[in-house]
Amino acid sequence: MLYAVFDVAGMLMFATGAMWLARRQALFIPDFPVNMTEAIVVSVGGLLMMLWAASRILREMITRPASQSNKGQ
In the chain, what's the furthest Cα-to-Cα distance? Predict the structure, then answer.
């Protein structure tokens, strides 16, 4: 569940940076990011966080024992 929170946070960071790069306006927090460098850093950081969280979610799903995934059948 914690990985899903990191995934959502990464999506918001990526969207914030991408919005500033596309339209030069803030998404949620006024005056953030301030310049192109911050927007790129926030976008790349958000993308990396999303990839990390998604890989951890997949890893947890793959390593789950078969007895837990087939419960109730």
Answer: 55
By residue count, the chain amounts to 73
Measured at the CA of 54, the angle between CA 32 and CA 19, to 5 degrees, comes to: 25
43 vs 13: CA distance, rounded Å: 6
Q: For residue 38, what are its two tokens?
A: 């911050």
Of 62, 60, 63, 52, whose CA–CA distance to 5 is shortest? 52
- Indicate whether 44 pLDDT > 90: yes
Question: Phi and psi at residue 27, in whole multiples of 5°?
Answer: -90, -55
C-alpha 21/C-alpha 41 separation (Å) is 11
- What dihedral angle (degrees, nearest 10) is formed by the CA atoms of 39, 44, 47, 48? -140
pTM: 0.81
